[in-house]
Amino acid sequence: MLNALADIACAKMRGVEPEEIQKGLETFQGIKRRMEVRGNERGVTVIDDFAHHPTAIATTLHGARARYPGRRIWALFEPRSISSARKEFEDGYVDAFHEADRVIIGPIYHRQRYEERYGLDKMLSVPDILQRLHTDGIQGEQLDDFDRIAERVAEGGMSGDVVVVMSSGAFGGVHEKILERLRARP
Fold first, then answer.
1. What is the pLDDT of residues 140-152, one digit of tens each?
2. DSSP-derived 3-state class of residue 123
3. Which of 16, 27, 35, 74 has the highest Cβ tally under 10 A?
């Protein structure tokens, strides 16, 4: 929404007619990996988003809540970039995940490299994040296997659920794995 408002302001400053601005907004199809709907199976909507740090995750989940009011939101997050694994982001992740009903955190992608370079004490603690979410009544877990993540979502997903998959990378192809398992579910 903020990007659209900025585009409207720029277009007006450049003298573009309001009808042309409206036409542009109506035909805009979005940007890959920004709240991109990857599919819908059995009423479960699977979304891909490039969010990979607390501010982006909070914005993405807030947007999902606004776009899908009253629906259960699953937040799947892969700490893939080196910076996303920084301990200093823990509070931000906890705050951001409060927009979700269920949270699954995948493997820390560069875990060994991060640990060697900065030390384990500087790496975020997924168990600490999940404990804090649990204390606040939000279901969460860490699963390091992409197939198991897909199985968990397919097992627990209900019609109306929205699954927001967030990573700066491919997240092990979990989007398609979820959709495949939902299709195969009896």
1. 999 999 999 999 9
2. strand
3. 74
